[in-house]
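Example 3.2
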Amino acid sequence: MYIHKRRSNKEIIGGSITKRRKIDGRNQNEHCEATENRVACYRVLDDHGYPIAGTTFDQVDEETAVRMYKSMASLEIMDSIFYEAQRQGRVSFYLTSTGEEGISVATAAALSPHDIILPQYREAGILLWRGFTIQDFANQCFGNEDDHGKGRQMPVHYGSNHLNFFTVSSPIATQLPQAAGVAYSLKMDGKDACAVAFTGDGATSEGDFHAAMNFAAVMEAPVLFICRNNGWAISTPISQQFRSDGVVVKGQAYGIRSIRVDGNDALAVYNAIRAAREMVVREQKPVLVEALTYRVGHHSTSDDSTKYRSLKEIEEWRRSRNPVTRFRKWVESKCWWSDEEEAQLRGTLRKQVLKAIQIAEKIKKPCLEDLFSDVYEQVPSNLRQQEKSLRQTINKHPQDFPSDVPLH
């Protein structure tokens, strides 16, 4: 019999829940020198969706659990259809969260809507949770007039000021020191909120990661750093990135309390982030969470991951360690979900995504002048000159300019 017992935040953050050399089927860095002293991984559900005996966690109510599952399934379906749309040439680029759906959705459920998100690029689940619609996603990917960014960002570089979600930035790790600054600003203003910065394992090799850790630790900025350690920085495996015990010890090295969690266990992520967030806001100090997961999809539509890893490995994670399937089994075990509801949800979602794409394709593109607006209150002379030069080039070579972009 599984007995629920509440555990304190500091006990969860301490990470001494399960000591294993292999976390959810994924070897930790085998080149690590301290092989006998690895940081434990917090895990609640086994691979079949059953609570692990002896593990403590805060129970999730039915409404929250079902909403979490629906959001994860929505992200899964949206990614699949948008990926195919890119392959059909309907959008120029796409990047999926396949295999990592549990991290963003469970995190969103554990946070306050007032917390400010500084994403990397696999955090669409947070936007879904906060109210970004399927149509909003489609408009951004197609860069049409209804896109919040007016078509000035490449696809999947979402942003929403209303939802406290910074626009995704392509350069790796730039959002991390910015998050420390945002957090310190929240602290100065006495806000009951924190900054939440996402990154991948590859970004921990960037100088910005270390600058952010040190700044946040020294200034005691209320920022929650979340690293999705999915094993690959595009084609570079973690064994070629660092020889430490993963990422969690990097936070400890800077004096930041850190926890390692099974990123494919949505219930564990929810509990870990909820405890970490409470600690960050209450004590006004940073926390680092390393979520162990696996990037099942290609890095992006510009990548073919079968060139550097086996299909057998990919399929093993897709079938046996799918975070969406694992969480669904747990929700079903609570009698909160059924096969009939599953079929209806997926059928409805597919129709919604396909309709959103059809609508987005028909909406006209933003006007050319929008390319130069919204950054400065008064457009500076250099931007006015650039716009003038661009219009002259278009007049000279109209055949090279997209016919669907209005000039005025």
